[in-house]
């Protein structure tokens, strides 16, 4: 992928590694990637519980699909829920169908898709960068912050990255076959299938990125005519067979109905308006109804894009330097190295460019992360194979960025871990946090709640991060500076230490998430209620569904929302068959004073005094700043 060094006669070049790899080496690489997945993903599948918000909402939708035997129209709490396409629901439903209605069973299919993504990056990297470059690209995806962090809850973006990776790979295979005068039928069909699955995963954006990549790549490499030889008719037919049935059935089963006036809605609207117009086009320009999401500023969005691939991001300047040097050489159409450079730059630029000018959340850049990982993998493999330019670049990045950053973090986490007193047994973390509800529309908004007083709850993870950062920074740096032994040995050892250290850090992140869980999930409270609640009892939530949606999944009981006719279930509530799950203050007071037993989850302590005016109040359970109140 990169230029040969000036002293190529003495040192192996990275281009020399771009050749078929022996089966044992390939098997060894796959086994390492599977081992990392087993530790970080399968091993962390069972804790913590589902999070309030979309995590538990999407999985509850899947559970209702199983219960209703309706895999077309999503429902939550008995109300139509049109926000997302169905593939994620189908996956979770399949997991629960096989293993039972458990949170880990619902998560398992997504976890398996994460493994598939690692292997897909490895396969594409092996094609573009050589086997070792592909392995390091996949290892970067497996041990970096973003792909791990955003698979701790059930969202489709990492699956979007998988289909994008598969689609890019199949397109390049098809292009090569056309150029060689061979049939491109199978890779073209595979690309069409991947696009259809992407459409069913993430909506229209699932086809915008791969089609945009294909068209722009063909234009830049002057291979537009090759597209006409990629079985376009049969590929389009296959795409339609996979993608269209759900869309057609969803539109037919949820036709437009009359909408109330004065809410910004059209006079008549159904699934087609909400899902296609509102959820896609109006969201892209920040005018979605209701506006229940945050929008990350562009500079922060770009910064986070590079942060998600840490620590491997520090090797990217070396890759960009090499791209600039290589661009003056061989024609773009025939250079394999330039093919790799164009692929990753166009891929990453397309995703980032789109979200720069449209609405964006922190994790919307995930589909571009494999492109960054491929860049990093090529640099690391090139240095390992003796390219002196890349070795010096990696050493500089380690010396001037990774070493000081890891050292500072290690000292900071170590000091906090040592001086912070251990949290008393049974203490509630909510007592030492702040509240920042204006930030909660962002995926990581609750991080703003952390305070120095809360660090005692995270002593073990902090100390674990401190120890791992020593390996990530000083130890890996000393290995790269080593002069004894073969170059490949100390470079490979340094890379291994880097990966192992990141595994340790990510395990500490998981441990910290489990300790923070009472703030962002309500599994414990829901299970206490589930142990005693009866079918005739009322279960109520003080606020919108996202503030306590885990109650639905873990109690298996309908949920009444007090002042909660907003956001997620709001649009579906206009359908005539929507159950009366919305309550106001008056209906809450009537229920509380009635003979019926009521359980209410609330965040607000003044709610106790409010309800005491109409009937006795008992605190049934409390955790994470939330209380379950009951009138019996």
Give a topology summary.
Blueprint: H1 23-42, H2 54-68, E1 75-76, E2 79-80, H3 87-99, H4 103-129, H5 131-143, H6 145-149, H7 157-179, H8 185-202, H9 205-220, H10 224-227, H11 232-253, E3 257-258, E4 268-269, H12 271-284, H13 298-307, H14 316-326, H15 336-356, H16 369-384, H17 388-419, H18 459-481, H19 487-520, H20 523-530, E5 538-542, H21 550-555, E6 560-562, E7 582-583, H22 585-593, E8 598-602, H23 606-612, E9 618-623, E10 626-630
Parallel strand pairs: 5-6, 5-8, 6-7
Antiparallel strand pairs: 1-2, 3-4, 8-10, 9-10
Mean pLDDT: 87
> Based on DSSP secondary structure assignment, what is the total number of beta strands?
10
Radius of gyration, in Å, reads 26 Å
Determine the N-to-C terminus distance.
70 Å
Describe the sheet with the most strands. 6 strands, mixed
Strand order of the largest sheet: 7-6-5-8-10-9
Uncertain runs are 1-24
Provide a quick synopsis of the model.
With 632 residues, the protein is mainly α. 58% of the residues lie in helices and 5% in strands.
Question: Which key phrases capture this entry?
Answer:
632 residues; six-stranded mixed β-sheet; two-stranded antiparallel sheet; 23 helices
Structure description:
- By secondary structure, the protein is mostly helical.
- It has 3 domains: 21-50 and 82-286, no CATH class; 388-517, no CATH class; 524-630.
- The chain is built from 23 helices and 10 strands.
- It has helices at 23-42, 54-68, 87-99, 103-129, 131-143, 145-149, 157-179, 185-202, 205-220, 224-227, 232-253, 271-284, 298-307, 316-326, 336-356, 369-384, 388-419, 459-481, 487-520, 523-530, 550-555, 585-593, 606-612, and strands spanning 75-76, 79-80, 257-258, 268-269, 538-542, 560-562, 582-583, 598-602, 618-623, 626-630.
- The strands form 3 sheets. A 6-stranded mixed sheet has the order 7-6-5-8-10-9. A two-stranded antiparallel sheet has the order 1-2.
- α3 packs across α4 and α4 runs antiparallel to α5.
- The longest helix is centred in the last third of the chain and has 34 residues, at 487-520.
């Amino acid at each position: 992928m990169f230029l040969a060094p000036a002293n190529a006669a003495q040192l192996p070049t990275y281009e020399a590694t771009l050749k078929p790899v022996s089966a044992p080496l390939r098997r060894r690489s796959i086994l390492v990637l599977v081992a990392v997945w087993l530790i970080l993903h399968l091993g962390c599948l069972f804790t913590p519980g589902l999070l309030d918000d979309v995590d538990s909402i999407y999985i509850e939708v899947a559970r209702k699909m199983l219960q209703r035997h309706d895999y077309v129209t999503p429902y939550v709490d008995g109300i139509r829920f049109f926000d997302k396409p169905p593939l994620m629901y189908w996956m979770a439903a399949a997991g629960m169908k096989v293993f039972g209605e458990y949170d880990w069973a619902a998560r398992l299919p997504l976890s398996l898709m994460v493994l598939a993504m690692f292997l897909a990056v490895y396969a594409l990297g092996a094609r573009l960068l050589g086997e070792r470059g592909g392995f390091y690209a996949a290892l970067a995806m497996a041990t970096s912050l973003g792909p791990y962090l955003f698979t701790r809850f059930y969202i489709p973006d990492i699956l979007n990255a998988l289909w994008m990776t598969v689609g890019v790979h199949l397109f390049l295979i098809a292009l090569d076959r056309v150029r060689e005068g061979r049939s491109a039928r199978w890779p073209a069909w595979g690309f069409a299938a991947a696009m259809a699955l992407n459409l069913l995963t993430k909506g229209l954006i699932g086809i915008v990125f791969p089609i945009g990549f294909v068209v722009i790549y063909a234009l830049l490499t002057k291979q537009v005519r090759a597209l006409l030889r990629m079985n376009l008719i049969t590929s389009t037919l296959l795409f339609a067979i996979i993608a269209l049935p759900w869309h057609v059935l969803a539109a037919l089963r949820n036709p437009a109905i009359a909408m109330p006036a004065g809410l910004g809605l059209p006079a008549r609207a159904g699934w087609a308006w909400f899902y296609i117009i509102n959820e896609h086009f109006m969201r892209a320009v920040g005018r979605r109804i209701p506006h229940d999401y945050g929008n990350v500023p562009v500079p922060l969005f770009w910064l986070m894009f590079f942060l998600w691939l840490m620590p491997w991001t520090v090797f990217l300047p070396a890759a960009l330097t090499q791209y600039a040097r290589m661009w003056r050489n061989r024609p773009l159409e025939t250079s394999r190295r330039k093919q790799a450079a164009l692929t990753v730059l166009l891929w990453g630029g397309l995703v980032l460019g789109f979200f720069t000018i449209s609405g964006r959340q922190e994790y919307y850049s995930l589909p571009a992360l494999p492109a960054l990982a491929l860049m990093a993998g090529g640099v690391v493999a090139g240095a390992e194979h003796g390219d002196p330019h890349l070795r010096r670049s990696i050493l500089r990045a380690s010396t001037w960025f990774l070493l000081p950053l890891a050292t500072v973090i290690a000292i900071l986490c170590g000091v906090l871990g040592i001086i912070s007193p251990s949290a008393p047994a049974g203490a509630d973390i909510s007592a030492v946090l702040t509240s920042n509800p204006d930030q909660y529309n962002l995926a990581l908004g609750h991080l703003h709640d952390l305070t120095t007083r809360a660090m005692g709850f995270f002593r073990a993870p902090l100390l674990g991060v401190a120890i791992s950062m020593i390996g990530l920074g000083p130890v890996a740096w000393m290995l790269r500076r080593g002069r004894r032994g073969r170059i490949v040995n100390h470079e490979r050892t340094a890379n291994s230490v880097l990966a192992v250290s990141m595994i340790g850090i990510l395990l500490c992140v998981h441990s910290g998430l489990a300790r923070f869980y009472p703030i962002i999930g309500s599994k414990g409270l829901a299970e206490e209620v589930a142990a005693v609640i009866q079918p005739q009892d009322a279960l109520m939530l003080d606020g919108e569904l996202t503030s306590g949606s885990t109650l639905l999944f873990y109690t298996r009981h309908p949920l009444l929302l007090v002042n909660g006719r907003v956001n997620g279930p709001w649009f579906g509530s206009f359908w005539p068959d929507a159950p009366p799950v919305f309550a106001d203050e008056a209906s809450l007071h009537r229920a509380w004073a009635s003979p019926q037993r009521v359980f209410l989850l609330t965040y607000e302590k003044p709610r106790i005094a409010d309800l005491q005016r109409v009937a006795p109040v008992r605190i049934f359970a409390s955790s994470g700043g939330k209380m379950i109140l009951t009138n019996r």
